[in-house]
């Protein structure tokens, strides 16, 4: 289910590091948003990627001078997850690695769409906002299902029970937060969308880090050695 070669280790290292790079770029973009000051609990994550100066969209005031930094973080995260998945999983090993690969693809493509089609007023007017919304939903659903499935497939992945439980819990929190976010958004409530969105997104990053650490610590099952000559043949 897991490839056992140096390229897979490179993929695991990339999967371990990219969430931290993403969070760093998010913090840099948020630090530049000062009028009004960016609120992690209230303001949407994707609004950090909206260029064009002060504007009002989705019920919030937007002003992200370093929107390109946030969008770089989105696209980078998506590309790395897709590439790492291709390096790590042995898709010929059955349905489970294919499921994990497809969920990684959904997350990666979704995040790339979020960074490529910012949720701006212009996007609403020209209707490209649909790509942003589809991408955000695909990323949050696909990423959290990936977290849950890594826990459920722990024996095949070689993950210890504690790490598997952590990923399942993280994914469940992420999915529940995503549902709460969508319900409040549909009702037009003035809620702490930033908090709910982060509770739907950050568990995915936790799951990626946990899964990558498990791989790098050697918990992934090793490939069986090639059969050698029998004792009778050697005698």
Automatic annotation (TrEMBL):
Keywords of the record: Membrane, Transmembrane, Transmembrane helix
One Pfam entry name: DUF998
InterPro entries in the cross-refs: DUF998 (IPR009339)
Annotated TM spans: 12-34, 68-91, 98-117, 129-153, 165-187, 199-220
Protein's recorded name: DUF998 domain-containing protein
Organism: Stutzerimonas kirkiae
């Amino acid at each position: 289910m897991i490839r056992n070669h140096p390229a897979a280790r490179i993929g695991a290292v990339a999967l371990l590091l990219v969430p931290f790079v993403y969070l760093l770029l998010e913090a840099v973009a948020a630090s530049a948003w000062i009028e009004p000051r960016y609120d992690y609990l209230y303001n949407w994550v994707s609004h950090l990627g909206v260029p064009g100066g002060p504007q009002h969209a989705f019920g919030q005031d937007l002003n992200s001078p370093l929107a390109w930094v946030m969008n770089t973080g989105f696209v980078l995260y998506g590309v790395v997850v897709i590439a790492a998945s291709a390096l790590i999983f042995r898709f010929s090993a059955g349905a489970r690695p294919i499921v994990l690969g497809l969920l990684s693809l959904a997350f990666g493509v979704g995040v790339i769409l979020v960074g490529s089609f910012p949720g701006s007023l212009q996007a609403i007017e020209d209707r490209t906002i649909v790509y942003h919304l589809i991408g955000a939903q695909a990323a949050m659903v696909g990423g959290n299902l990936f977290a849950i499935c890594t826990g459920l497939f722990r024996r095949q992945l070689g993950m210890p029970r504690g790490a598997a439980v952590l990923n399942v819990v993280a994914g469940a929190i992420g999915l529940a937060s995503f549902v709460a976010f969508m319900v409040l958004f549909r009702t037009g409530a003035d809620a702490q969308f930033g908090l709910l969105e982060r509770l739907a997104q950050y568990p995915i990053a936790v799951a990626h880090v946990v899964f990558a650490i498990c791989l790098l610590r050697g918990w992934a099952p090793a490939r069986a050695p090639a059969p050698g000559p029998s004792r009778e043949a050697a005698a």
